[in-house]
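[Discussion] Sanity-checking designs against the backbone

I'm trying to build intuition for which residues belong where. Below is a C-alpha cell string of 107 positions. I'd appreciate it if someone posts a full sequence so I can compare it with mine line by line.
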C-alpha cells in the first residue's frame, strides 16, 4: 500500500456512501450513522492492539488493514479529506526536523 492506494480507497469509499446498503458495506455503515462508524474504528483499534501483542504478523496485517479502512470511512463521514491528515503529518515531519536542528550543537 502506498499513498495512491489510500487515495483510491478514499475515492471508492466516497462513491459507495450513497450505494445500496444491501450491496455495500460502506453504505451499510453510513446508514447506521457516525456513532456506529466511530465505534467500528475503536473496535478495530482494540483488535489491532491484541494482534500486535499476541497475534501473528499476518493477523496484525489484517487488523491494521481493517483499522485503516474504517478510519478512512470515518474521515469521509466527517468530510475530512485524507490530504488534510497527510498534510498534518508532513507538518510534524518539518517540526521534528526543526527540533533536531535546534538541538544540534553549533559549530
Ligand atoms: N477495505 C475494505 C474492507 N475492510 C474490511 N471490510 C469489511 O469490514 C467488515 C468488518 O467485519 P466485522 O465482523 O468487524 O463487522 P460486521 O460484523 O460486518 O459489522 P458489525 O456487526 O460490527 O456491525 C467486514 O464486513 C469486511 O468485509 C471492508 N469493506 C470494504 N473495503 C473496501 O471498500 C470498498 C467498497 O466496499 P463496499 O462498500 O462493500 O462496496 C471495497 O472495494 C474495498 O476496497
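Best answer:
Here's mine. Compare freely.
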Amino acid at each position: 500500500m502506498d499513498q495512491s492506494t489510500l487515495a483510491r480507497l478514499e475515492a471508492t469509499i466516497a462513491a459507495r456512501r450513497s450505494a445500496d446498503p444491501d450491496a455495500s458495506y460502506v453504505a451499510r455503515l453510513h446508514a447506521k450513522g457516525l456513532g456506529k462508524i466511530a465505534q467500528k474504528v475503536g473496535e478495530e483499534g482494540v483488535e489491532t492492539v491484541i494482534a500486535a501483542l499476541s497475534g501473528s504478523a499476518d493477523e496484525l496485517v489484517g487488523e491494521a488493514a481493517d483499522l485503516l479502512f474504517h478510519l478512512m470511512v470515518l474521515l469521509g463521514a466527517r468530510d475530512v479529506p485524507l490530504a488534510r491528515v497527510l498534510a498534518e503529518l508532513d507538518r510534524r515531519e518539518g517540526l521534528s526536523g526543526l527540533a533536531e536542528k535546534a538541538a544540534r550543537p553549533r559549530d
